[in-house]
Automatic annotation (TrEMBL):
GO MF annotation terms: tRNA-specific adenosine-34 deaminase activity
Source organism of this protein record: Stieleria neptunia
Signal sequence range: none
Annotated keywords: Hydrolase
Record-given protein name: tRNA-specific adenosine deaminase
Domain of life: Bacteria
Lineage: Bacteria, Pseudomonadati, Planctomycetota, Planctomycetia, Pirellulales
Domain annotation CMP/dCMP-type deaminase: ranges: 12-125
UniProt gene name: tadA_3
Coiled-coil positions: none
Cross-referenced PROSITE patterns: CYT_DCMP_DEAMINASES_2
InterPro entries: CMP_dCMP_dom, Cytidine_deaminase-like
EC number: 3.5.4.33
Length: 160
C-alpha cells in the first residue's frame, strides 16, 4: 500500500505509514508475539516491508520488529543500508533498534507509543530515549514521535 508520492512528509502520510506497522503488530499479536510492529517505506512512499516482533518465535532477543524489518528490507533491496528510507515503529525504538536504524542509514523515524508508555504497560524497557542515540549520529535523523499514539498504546493490552 503506497502512502503515495512523498506524502510521508505530511501528517496524513505518516498516519498511513504507521497503519502498516500497526497491522504488522496485530498480526504478531495473533501469532503469539509481543505487540510491536515496524514498517519501512521508500522516500517515495512505497512500502518495502512490514514486520512484527519475532523474539518468541525465533528464540532470538534481537528479533525486535525494527531489527527484523531492517534485515529483511536490506535483503529485499539488495543493499547494506537503506538511505532515504523511513522507519515506522509502533513503539519508540529501544537502544538496540535505534542504533540499528542509525547503522542502516535511515533518515526518518516515526513512532507511536513512547518507551514510557511501554514501561507503564508492564514491558521491560531501558530508560534511554531513542532521541539520545539519534542525536549522536553523524547524519541528521528526523524523528516524528506520537503518531497514532493511542492506537499504538492499545496494542499493549491486545490479546489473540
Amino acid at each position: 500500500m503506497p502512502a503515495s508520492d512523498n506524502t510521508l512528509q505530511t501528517d496524513e502520510g505518516r498516519c498511513a505509514g504507521m497503519r502498516a506497522a500497526l497491522d504488522a503488530a496485530r498480526h504478531g499479536v495473533f501469532a503469539g508475539q509481543a505487540p510491536f510492529g515496524a514498517a519501512i517505506f521508500t522516500n517515495q512512499g512505497e512500502l518495502v516491508v512490514a514486520e512484527h516482533n519475532q523474539v518468541r518465535e525465533m528464540l532470538d532477543p534481537t528479533a525486535h520488529a525494527e531489527v527484523f524489518a531492517i534485515r529483511l528490507a536490506c535483503r529485499l533491496t539488495g543493499q547494506r543500508t537503506l538511505p532515504g528510507c523511513w522507519l515506522f515503529a509502533t513503539c519508540e525504538p529501544c537502544p538496540m533498534c535505534a542504533t540499528a536504524a542509525v547503522f542502516a542509514g535511515l533518515r526518518h523515524v516515526v513512532y507511536g507509543a513512547s518507551v514510557e508508555d511501554a514501561r507503564e504497560a508492564g514491558f521491560s524497557e531501558l530508560q534511554l530515549p531513542s532521541r539520545q542515540i539519534f542525536d549522536r549520529s553523524d547524519d541528521k535523523i528526523a524523528v516524528f514521535p506520537g503518531v497514532l499514539r493511542q492506537e499504538c498504546r492499545a496494542l499493549f493490552t491486545a490479546r489473540p
